[in-house]
Design a protein that fits this description.
Length: about 300
């Protein structure tokens, strides 16, 4: 493993529980569950490596190269050496994420290496297929792989990340920039969308649209329209994406809880509703996903 690979972009600023999942030559993959000691901003830290950070649960605010944004379980962040980042946890909860750290020489050897090396400070969202691939990758690493298989699986995973998150050749592309409005209006709309994301990420799955709109100080129609413009997603679709990710976390960590209890916890009408929504998003029913994501080590 090249010297230097192994320093986390948030390790200096955010306390938490860390676990290295694998480190084949030139690549490090690890998972983190943050512990919130303060809701304020951490000291800025300059990143030294190329990092792919994939959200799994919870939420936080990040200030990357002077720009503030909201990150949650759907977020994907790509950073490179020289980027400066600090984080805060305004909701009072921690977050969990996976980081894939790659040596630039490894990236340069990939057919899509130029896009990875040029992309900086980019945040997008993972679709359902990428999120499931991410979680299944973690489950496989937890069960145990040799370095050869680790490297092959990581490269295959990286193959689809840029296209499946919507990243383009231009660094920093995001949907909000495509809205042909004044910068001040764009910023206000982004803040409104982020505030709605905060409300929903806090686990307010039982709130109505009217209640969410009251929380953020907007009419339901205006909130729905702005949220779609900024994120490219309806509020309903975003809420379901959050719920499905929370369910996947629960299924990966527990073999014992009845599915009807999981459905009730995450605001589904019943077990059948849970099964239908999860299958629509990731193509498998919860019972099958529980087996796929189990952490039982290989014998």
């Amino acid at each position: 493993m090249p010297e230097g690979i192994g320093s986390d972009p948030r390790r200096k600023t955010t306390p938490g529980r860390w676990r290295v999942l694998g480190h084949p030559e030139g690549i490090l993959i690890y998972e983190v569950r943050c512990i919130v000691e303060s809701h304020g901003w951490t000291e800025p830290a300059v990143e030294r490596f190329h990092n792919l950070i994939l959200g799994r649960s919870g939420a936080y605010r990040r200030r990357l190269n002077g720009r503030t944004a909201f990150s949650d379980a759907t977020s994907v962040l790509i950073t490179r050496p020289g980027d400066e980042m600090s984080v805060s946890h305004p909701l009072g909860c921690g977050d969990s994420y996976t980081c894939v750290q790659v040596d630039p020489r490894v990236l340069a050897g990939r057919p899509d290496g130029a896009r990875w090396l040029e992309t900086a400070g980019w945040e997008g969202t993972s679709d359902a297929s990428l999120d499931l691939a991410h979680r299944m990758l973690i489950a496989e690493f937890r069960r145990g792989l040799d370095h050869f298989e680790m490297a092959e699986r990581l490269h295959r995973f990286l193959d689809g990340v840029l296209s499946r998150t919507g990243a383009r050749d231009e660094p920093g592309t995001d949907l909000a920039r495509a809205v042909s409005r004044r910068p001040a209006t764009q910023a206000a709309h982004r803040r409104l969308a982020d505030r709605a994301r905060e409300v929903l990420t806090a686990g307010a799955y039982s709130l109505s649209l009217d209640a969410v709109a009251r929380e953020v100080g907007a009419s339901p129609h205006h909130l729905s329209r702005v949220f779609h413009r900024v994120t490219g997603s309806s509020l309903t679709a975003y809420r379901n994406r959050l719920r499905v990710r929370a369910v996947l976390d629960t299924l990966a960590e527990s073999d014992e809880r009845p599915l009807r209890a999981v459905a009730a916890e995450h605001g589904f009408a019943d077990q059948a509703h849970l099964t239908r929504v999860v299958r629509d998003h990731v193509g498998h029913p919860p019972a099958h996903l529980r087996r796929l994501l189990a952490h039982t080590p290989r014998t």
